[in-house]
Design brief:
Layout (H helix, E strand, L loop, with lengths): L2 E5 L6 E5 L4 H12 L3 H7 L27 H22 L9 E5 L5 H10 L2 E6 L2 H14 L5 E5 L12 E7 L7 H11 E14 L8 H10 L6 H9 L3 E8 L1 H11 L9 H9 L3 E10 L1
Parallel strand pairs: 3-4, 3-6, 4-5, 6-7
Antiparallel strand pairs: 1-2, 7-9, 8-9
Helix pairs in contact: 2-3, 3-4, 6-8, 7-10, 9-10
This protein binds S-adenosylmethionine.
S-adenosylmethionine (SAM) binds next to helix 1, helix 4 and strand 4.
């Protein structure tokens, strides 16, 4: 991979900045550099954990405002955010025993909310990679504000060719970021950086092979996010080919539907809510967690 070294302005660290390996990666870098949807930023403002993923769990209706409550929008935002953080908590439940001396890798780290949560939970170091310089700068800025910049770092880097040493990483994950890459290339890189016995976890939307082919709703989601949703079968096959042996495969679809139905009622709708709800309900699309051992 061609690369140059640049300095990320927020904290003066040197970051590995790729020239995009492909024109597509340039498109994705631009997409996330320009992304500033209220549904992401206003939720992150609730407690400073900025996520770019969806939520799971039952809605706490008592936490929502009654009709006419002037605070109802803020209460709804806080509830959506709680469900998104709950999603990251469930991902981390599957990382296994992580100690303070361990290093984790967040592949496609976004604005870094999951990295902060992992550091707060395990006390470990977390290395994040994203194609977006804006996201890396934001994540490093948040880490500096929290005083954890020596333990949590984002860099602009292609997750298919990371600068980490072979076997350096105790646990790694993709939280809704695996639909931007070829899965064989992705899992080959996770398998390289993970130590033997390390754990890989993904939470992702995937199309359901039982449905047959990607439905029109799945195609709509691909077009909306400029991504390429893989099937559940592709995940399992690419893992098996790369020494990643599933230890848990959990269908989170019923757990994420309440989040989507709540979000569809909010002022923060982005227009893609119907495609998610319809595809989850017709069985063409699934929200899954897969945790795998690096053997
Ligand atoms: C939907 S966001 C998820 C962000 C984060 N995982 C979270 O849960 O908040 C997708 C992320 O994948 C990253 N991404 C996509 N392709 C990538 C690649 N080839 N290398 C590194 N990051 C990539 C994007 O830059 C973006 O940060």
């Amino acid at each position: 991979m061609l690369s140059t070294e640049l300095t990320v302005p927020s904290n003066g660290r040197t970051a590995h900045v790729p020239n995009p390996a492909t024109p597509y990666q340039g498109d994705i870098a631009r997409y996330w550099d320009g992304e500033a949807r209220p549904v992401n930023l206003r939720l992150g403002d609730v407690d400073g954990l900025y996520h770019h993923h969806y939520g799971i769990g039952d809605v706490d209706h008592a936490a929502l405002g009654a009709d006419g409550d002037p605070a109802s929008e803020q209460k709804l935002i806080a509830e959506l955010h709680r469900l998104e953080s709950a999603q990251a908590d469930v991902l981390m439940n599957h990382l296994g025993d992580i100690g303070q001396g361990d290093t984790l890798m967040d592949a496609g780290c976004g604005r870094g909310g999951s990295m902060v949560m992992a550091n707060q939970r395990f006390g470990c170091s977390v290395e994040g990679v994203t194609l977006s310089a804006k996201q890396a700068e934001f994540a490093n800025g948040r880490a500096a504000e929290l005083g954890i910049q020596d333990r949590v770092r984002a860099r602009v880097c292609n997750m298919l060719a990371t600068p980490f040493d072979t076997g350096q990483i105790a646990g790694s994950w993709n939280n809704e970021s695996s639909m931007y890459v070829d899965l064989h290339d992705l899992f080959a890189e996770h398998s390289r950086v993970l130590k033997v016995g390390g754990r890989y976890v993904t939470i992702t939307g995937c199309w359901n092979p039982r449905y047959g082919q990607p439905s029109k709703w799945v195609s709509q989601i691909n077009a909306h996010f400029e991504c390429n949703i893989h099937s559940r079968r592709e995940y399992l096959r690419a893992m098996a080919d790369n020494r990643l042996v599933p230890q848990a495969v959990i269908d989170l679809t019923p757990d994420t539907l309440p989040y989507w139905k709540l979000r569809a009622t909010s002022s923060l709708v982005t227009g893609i809510e119907e495609a998610f709800i319809k595809s989850y309900e017709d069985g063409s699309f699934q929200y899954v967690l897969i945790a795998a051992d690096r053997v």
